[in-house]
Amino acid sequence: MRWGLIPSWWNGGVLSIAGLSDRWHSTDTGEIVLSRTMTITDANAFTPAIHNQMPVLLDRSDFEAWLSGAAGPEVLRPAVEDRLRMWPVSRRVNRTGGADDPALIEEIAT
User: Fold this and answer.
1) How far, in Å, CA of 76 to CA of 57, rounded?
2) What is the maximal distance between C-alpha atoms in the chain?
């Protein structure tokens, strides 16, 4: 069984996850490498059934500070518990190579 985690305010908007991006030259090949990572924090009280950590979910009020580099560690906190909802979803979410399918986030019977 897989579980879908969706923002509790979901209306087709964007879920903003704090991340870092860098561009550097490989010492082995000399090629430019683009590196990206999500910023991770401790799980909130809602998510331990899935994992003991979670991505940092940025509040809209934190966007500018995060993107400008002015944000401090105060934004690297677990999301409040009512920020996400969870329900069982199809194992089809694990398939790769297909087009996005909005039905992947639909709840299935367990």
Assistant:
1) 8
2) 51
Closest listed residue to residue 85, CA positions, set 1, 31, 15, 37: 15
The values of phi and psi at residue 97, to 5°, are: 85, 0
Distance CA 54, CA 81 (A): 12
Q: What pLDDT sits at residue 12?
A: 57
**pTM of the full predicted structure?**
0.71
DSSP 80: P
**Contact assessment for residue 80 and residue 44, using Cβ atoms and an 8 Å cutoff:** yes
- CA–CA separation, 12 vs 102, rounded Å? 10
